[in-house]
Amino acid sequence: MIRVTKTALVTGGAGGIGFELCKLIAQEGYDIVLVDMNEVGMTRAAAQLNDMAGVAVHTIVKDLSRQESAREIVAELEERGLAIDLLINNAGFGLSGRFVDIGLEAQLNMLHVNISAVVALTRLLLPGMLQRESAAILNVASIAAFQPGPYMSAYFASKAFVLSWSESLGMELEGTGVTVTTLCPPPTDTGFARRAGAGTSIAFRKGLMATPEEVAREAWTGLKKKKVIVLPCLLNKVAVFTGRFLPRKAVTAIAGAMNRQRATGAADGLRIPRRTQETIIPRAV
Predict the structure, then answer these.
(1) More confident residue, 268 or 136
(2) Where does residue 177 fall: left (phi above 0), alpha (psi -120 to 50 degrees), or beta otherwise?
(3) Which residues, in sequence order, are CB contacts of 107 under 8 Å at separation 6+?
(4) Interatomic CA distance for residues 6 and 136, integer angstroms
(5) pLDDT value at residue 280
């Protein structure tokens, strides 16, 4: 039987950038598989997508900080007879504060969601995607991927991995029909800062952040054009370009100044947020 309808899998699709991407994808006729640990939010998002576009929306409740999660997701897809044409690795979260003040388990969970789950899900789904005439992968990194980030050091490093790995993977897949695009958003008004404990930093000031809608639109346009990297917003592009000409130490110092918390005691007594898989993607600077 010939498959006519294409299917997209979106992690962290219950809100923010992930949900806005789902809306754009659904409008072009893709069925959608939502993967998120927020069951209530995901159910609400699925209903909205179905009402809006009339596409089939499947939901999988999964905590991507668990090592087994990627294999469990793929097993569920196989049970439901779903093949993936578009993979959007959007789920991720950040932690703000001095490295030594943030608990080890919290940081390892973050690295698993931001790195290991992305690599595992891509590796497990890629063989099937290569059998399609055309397929695409969108990995959500961050403007944080372009520089070190004191006070969000592990988070910045995780996004640098996503960018570097995605560029390498994309070159390996040239000529196969599968493209890889990396989205590197600026600070975005999604709730990321609050969950990361970065709400008082300069980088996440109201009025300076991008909206999820504008980031998603640029991401979707870039993916369809098969761009390697999508940098939404003019200031985002300027920041990355300018950083190439500044001394590395200066770039690091600027990022640290942007990330450092302004609230009294925030740096010394950091409250570690609960793990989240969100649909945003950070950012720092």
Answers:
(1) 136
(2) left
(3) 95, 99, 154
(4) 11
(5) 30
Would you please indicate which residues are annotated as catalytic (active-site) residues? 155
pLDDT computed for residue 95 by the predictor:
93
pLDDT at 249: 79
The CATH number that domain 7-259 falls under is 3.40.50.720
The domain limits of the chain are: 7-259
Residue 265, pLDDT score:
35
Residue 135 and residue 125: Cα distance in Å, rounded? 11
The whole-angstrom separation of Cα 255 and Cα 233 is 18
